[in-house]
Write a structure and sequence with these properties.
mainly beta; 6-stranded antiparallel beta sheet
């Protein structure tokens, strides 16, 4: 998967290639690919009860919290590697 945007900088940069392991759940604060309302996002994931918090690494972007009882969110997989052209 190719990263687009700056919400995960400095960890991930626009244009990086992300290696994803397909899995439906990830551990606390792992970087995951998430499908939400037809949009694919890459964020750190924190699950608390019926809520899923999607945290960017870049403080200029907002954290999003989703109530899993009201919205459909699917964790597609966990980021396990990154390739960056020098």
């Amino acid at each position: 998967m190719r990263v687009q945007g700056e919400s995960m900088m400095p960890t991930l940069w626009d244009g990086d290639y992300l290696l994803i392991r397909r899995q439906a759940a990830v551990e606390h604060e792992a970087i995951a690919v998430v499908l939400m309302e037809g949009e694919v996002v890459v964020k750190r994931v924190v699950r608390t009860g019926h809520h899923l918090t999607l945290k960017p690494d870049n403080d200029a972007f907002p954290t999003r919290t989703v109530n899993l009882q009201q919205q459909t969110v699917q964790i597609v997989g966990k980021a396990v590697g990154v390739y960056r052209k020098l």
